[in-house]
Structures are given as C-alpha cells and as structure tokens.
Design brief:
The protein is an alpha/beta fold and 436 residues long. The protein has 3 domains: 125 residues, Methylthiotransferase, N-terminal domain (Rossmann fold, 3-Layer(aba) Sandwich), CATH 3.40.50.12160; 232 residues, Alpha-Beta Horseshoe (pyruvate-formate lyase- activating enzyme), CATH 3.80.30.20; 58 residues, Beta Barrel (OB fold (Dihydrolipoamide Acetyltransferase, E2P)), CATH 2.40.50.140. Helix 9 packs parallel to helix 10 and helix 10 packs parallel to helix 12. The termini are far apart. The mean pLDDT is 93.
Length: 436
C-alpha cells in the first residue's frame, strides 16, 4: 500500500505551538527524504502530534490511532509515531497500551527525530532537553509562504490548576533575542510579510530584552509588514506593552488574553494569579493605548466548584468587556493536574448548559461588533482566493485579525496591504470592497 517514495503524514491537534512543532517535524522528515502528504492514505510514516489539554482532543487522537492500528494490521510496514503532550505525559506506558505505536517523542525531543526514525527499538523519547531544543529546531519547513510562526519561548511556569502544559513542555525558557531577530530577518529575506511570535506566555519573554523591545526590534526589519503574538498572560500585561502596540503600526491591533472566568474566586482556584477586577483594569489599559484593539479570550465553563453565581459573573464579564471572539470549552479533568482532584466536580449536563449560554451571549456580541464595522475602511493584507465563497472573491485579514472577503481587481496579488471598505459584518467574517 505504500508509495515507492518515503511519504509521511502528520496529523496535528491542539494549539499553535503544536502547529509550529508539526512544521519542525515536517522539516526534519523532508531532510530525511520524505515527501509530506496531506492524507494518511499510502503514507509510510504517520506522526500523530497530540494535545492533552482537553479530554476531547485525547479522544480524537485515540480514535485516529485505532483506525491506523487496523490499517497497520493489513500493512505492517506502516510506521506510527506519536508526538506532543500525550507522548510526553504517558512515556513508555503509551507504547505498552498501544502495540501499534513504533516510537513516541515529547515536544522537547523533536530535534532528535532524525535519529529516532532509524532506531530499531520501540522507544519513548521524553527526556528534558531544554538547552538543545533552542537552535536545533530551526528547520526550514513552513506551511504558509506569507505568514510565519516564530517560537520565542518554550514551556510555562504558571501551573494553572487545570493545565498540563508545565508538565509536558517544561519550565519557561526564552530564546536569545539575537536568534529570534536573525530568524525574522531570514524570513523577511525570503518574502515573508507577517510574523507571529509564539509562546505559552509571550509577554513573560525574558531572552535578553523585554517583550515590547523585541516587538520593536522586529518591526525595524525591512519587509516585515505585520507582527502578531500569541498567547499573552494577563498578569504580565503592562503599560509598556500596551503603548508599544498603540504606537507601532506594524504591531497588529489584536491581543488574545485568556480570562478563563469572570469570577475571582474561581480564578483563585484556577491559580491564574489575577482577579477579575485586575483583568478588567488591564483591558481598560489596552483600550486607552489602542482604542481599536480587538480582544479575544478563552473561557472554561464549569470549573470544579463553580457556582451558579460564579457562572453569572462570567456571563456578566462577557457583556462588560465585549470580546471580539472567544474560545470556550467545558472543563475536563486532566491527569496529574490539581483541579482534577478538586471536590465538587460538576456534571456534564451543567457544564454543557453553561457553555451553551456563554457561546450564545458571545456570538451576539461578536456579530454586533462586526456589524458596527460596516461602512468603515481598513487595511487588509491579501492572502489569496477565498475558499468559502463561489464568487471568485479573495480574502485577507485586518490588523485586528478579522477575515475580510472582497472582489479582487487586476492588481490584486498575495501579500499586499490594500484598503477595503466593509459592506457587511457576519459572525465569522466581513464582506468588503476594495477602495481604489
Ligand atoms: S499559563 Fe496556565 S493555562 Fe497557560 S500554559 Fe501555563 S499553566 Fe497552562
């Protein structure tokens, strides 16, 4: 069933860190002579790059692994590797419970993939390898030729009580700023227009300069038109960052700032290190310096012990802040986390009801915000033909990270900043027309 040439398929679940890790994995495999396929059919190697932040992501991985295991029974030459947070958390246990897995490796061991590929033994590579990862990971594969991810730091020190990341990705460590600048310069040199700085808590960056200083240095690189960053932690958001975003045109008017709950007592049990009032003060600070900033967030519905009144505080917070968009999920117990052992775990029914209310309230707010943009003009970076409509429209993004669909003209090509007037706002996108 395998093709003549070595072919690999990488399935990615989870956050942008995982997406970037998959790019590194693809880069290493290409260096070893693999073609990268968009489907698992016919692949000689399948890498499942896993996420364990929520139970659902883990279930999806297990079902895909089950499907591949059946395939491997018919085609024993198929190699299956597991990477990411589940691989790190489970180590050798994963190989024991799933005999179809040939080898596994954690996020700090990706750079070793070149060697693991040829290891004759079924092994789990999950050693802490902080020092080695920084610079060996700069493999060339990138999924997009306009917008690039750049890791600026790895790991996390915060130990939020529901989260596995500090256990799977290790303690926080920042790449030296010189290395980041040099990577960004190289990207500009080969035509990249937009850079997204990546880290679990980018604004805690500590690699020889402050995070706002890093943003400013990257903005001075010729050819880079836009800079984004994800994810920021509310506790480290300060006036220096807010004013840097406000003053520097290349730094996009968007921040993803997870609040998780509108109840300060839930935030304490989550170990988030801020109260709702402190979070709200940071939102005001951001809006003072960047009046047009789009703010998105994460919410967990039904954290252990969350009362009806805690939930109402979250709904109230959504209405008070008016986020441009949210990612909301039901709380799920993750192994080895403090919250998993907390009393008063809520039923799935209550969690689902609360999640549904949160999403309903948020959808209305998002749509209202997008409607309010009708008639206004925005700079949009063109990205290509829109995949979702049949009218030959193109799409791009505003600096506030909103997708805009528009009819192109004869000068339209990828990677331009064009002016677009918004005609209609929807929940997930905007329709606009070029302003010539
Ligand atoms: S800040 Fe909290 S939620 Fe985010 S990665 Fe660290 S521990 Fe997890």
């Amino acid at each position: 069933m395998t093709r003549d040439k070595l072919t690999a398929y990488i399935h990615t679940w989870g956050c942008q860190m995982n997406v970037r890790d998959s790019e590194h994995i693809k880069g290493i495999l290409k260096g070893e002579g693999y073609d990268i396929s968009d489907t698992p059919e016919g692949a000689s190697l399948v890498v499942l790059n896993t996420c364990s932040i929520r139970e659902k992501a883990e279930q999806k991985f297990l079902s895909e692994l089950g499907r591949l295991s059946l395939q491997k029974k018919k085609h024993p030459e198929l190699k299956i590797a597991v990477s990411g947070c589940i691989a790190q958390q489970q180590g050798r246990a994963l190989l024991k419970s799933h005999p179809s897995v040939d080898f596994s490796f954690g996020p700090q061991n990706i750079f070793g993939l070149k060697e693991f590929l040829y290891d004759e033994h079924r092994t789990a590579f999950t050693k802490e390898n902080f020092e080695a990862e920084n610079e060996k990971l700069q493999t060339p594969h990138r999924d997009n030729d306009l917008r690039a991810w750049v890791n600026i730091m790895y790991g996390c020190n915060n130990y939020c009580s529901y989260c596995v990341v500090p256990y799977t990705r290790g303690r926080e460590r920042s790449r030296p700023f010189e290395h980041i600048i040099s990577e960004a310069r190289d990207l500009a040199g080969i035509g990249y227009k937009e850079i997204t700085l990546l880290g679990q808590n980018v604004n805690s960056y500590n690699g020889g300069c402050t995070f706002p200083e890093l943003l400013t240095m990257i903005s001075n690189i010729e050819g880079i038109l836009r800079i984004r960053f994800i994810t920021s932690h509310p506790k480290d958001l300060n006036a220096e960052l807010a004013s840097t975003i406000g003053e520097n045109k290349k730094i996009c008017n968007h921040i993803h700032l997870p609040v998780q709950s509108g109840s300060s007592s839930v935030l304490t049990r989550m170990n988030r290190k801020y109260t709702y009032e402190e979070y709200f003060t940071k939102i005001q600070l951001l809006r003072k310096h960047v009046p047009d900033i789009a703010i998105t967030t994460d919410i967990i519905a039904g954290f252990p012990g969350e009362t009806d009144s805690d939930h109402k505080e979250t709904v109230r917070a959504l209405k008070e802040i008016e986020f441009d968009g949210i990612f909301a999920f039901k709380y799920s117990q993750r192994p080895n986390t403090k919250a998993a052992g907390m009393d008063h775990q809520l039923s799935d029914k209550i969690k689902s009801q609360r999640l549904a209310e949160i999403l309903t309230v948020s959808d209305v707010i998002t749509e209202n915000i997008n409607n309010s943009l009708e008639g206004r003009c925005f700079e949009v970076m063109t990205e290509g033909k829109s995949e979702t409509n049949a009218e030959n429209k193109w799409f791009g993004r505003t600096t506030s990270n909103k997708i805009v669909n528009f009819l192109p003209n004869e000068n339209t090509k990828r990677g331009l900043i064009v002016m677009v007037r918004i005609i209609e706002g929807f929940k997930h996108s905007l329709d606009g027309e070029l302003v010539v």
